[in-house]
Amino acid sequence: MLQMACHAWGYNTMSLRDAVGTIARLGFRHIDLGTGPHLDVLAATQNPKITAEHIAHLLQEFDLTLTDLYLMLPHINSPEPERRQQQFGLFKSLIPFAEALGTPGITVSPGAMHADGPDHSLARAVPALQQIIDLTADSDFRVSFELHLDSAASTPAQALQLLQAVPGLSLTLDIAHLITQGTDWEDIHSLFEHTAHIQIRQAAPGKLQTPFEEGILDIPKLLGALKEADYHGVLTIEYMTTFGWQGMMEVSISREVVQTRDAIRMAQQA
Predict the structure, then answer these.
(1) Under a CB-based contact definition with an 8 Å cutoff, are residues 124 and 85 in contact?
(2) For the whole model, what pTM was predicted?
(3) What H or E segment, with its residue span, contains residue 264?
(4) Which of 41, 153, 219, 229 has the largest CB neighbor count within 10 A?
(5) What DSSP element (H or E) covers 124?
(6) Alpha carbon distance 1, 41 (integer Å)
(7) Rounded-to-integer distance, Cα 242 and Cα 252, Å
(8) Long-range residue pairs from 223-226, CB within 8 A, at least 24 positions apart, any chain
(9) Do residues 240 and 207 make contact, with C-beta atoms less than 8 angstroms apart?
């Protein structure tokens, strides 16, 4: 049976303590964290052990286990070399924090879609992600990139190109980004063998987030396909508060999290 997690990003309007407590009270034992209001990046780079211990103690207090740490570094493929190096320097300085926190995996962006177009943005993503892999060569955690809209890799074909070009890299798959684009199920299915971490929420073509009853994600079908693909990662429920971006509808986060959680449980029992 797949482990279920909830992403703290759904509760970015709360303090980290309140977000963690809410997720625990919804019955989850696993959680994803990421950069944003819940993570003081400056503190994590300057005092990695102390910052990690504070978060680890909070998770322990609420009986939660960390399943992924998303470090949002959208400019690793910037056309400007100085900006790329700044991002790599930040990532390198966060590795001791990630190690102290004990995350099993780190997710990064493949880099943004920059003004010089998709081909150049994707081409620069290859050495950028290779450098990320090289920087973590002495660490135990897996490194994944997320296929997402407005990035250098927003389609299955682009994602596969990066996976083939960078040995040791895996995929964090947020299926809603593909549903939004109207991607064929067969193309989504082709990514499962490369996927180390999955994030889901209800979505529809042109809408990166919808209320549960308006979404088209077939959860029983997804779980069946993941079983066929022998997927052993975590299934994270990730609703977002960036309403309006890519048609992301405003929803009641906890209501949607609970409905998605229950749909997963029912499909697993069946």
Answers:
(1) no
(2) 0.96
(3) helix 253-269
(4) 153
(5) helix 118-135
(6) 34
(7) 13
(8) 223/2, 223/264, 223/267, 223/268, 225/189, 225/192, 226/2, 226/192, 226/198
(9) no
Q: Distance between CA atoms of 95 and 101, rounded to whole angstroms?
A: 10
Torsion of CA 247, 113, 128, 157, to 10 degrees: 70
- Which token pair is 153? 């890799």
CA gap 151, 177 in Å, rounded? 11
- Could you give the CA distance from residue 144 to residue 239 in angstroms, rounded to a whole number? 20
Query: Could you confirm whether domain 3-269 is CATH 3.30.110.10?
Result: no
- Domain limits, the chain: 3-269
d(CA 183, CA 120): 23
Q: How do residues 14-42 score in pLDDT, each as one tens digit? A: 999 999 999 999 999 999 999 999 999 99
Q: Where are the beta strands (DSSP E) in 142-252?
A: 142-146, 170-174, 195-200, 234-237
How far apart CA 186 and CA 190 sit, in angstroms, is: 6
Tokens representing 268 are 């697993």
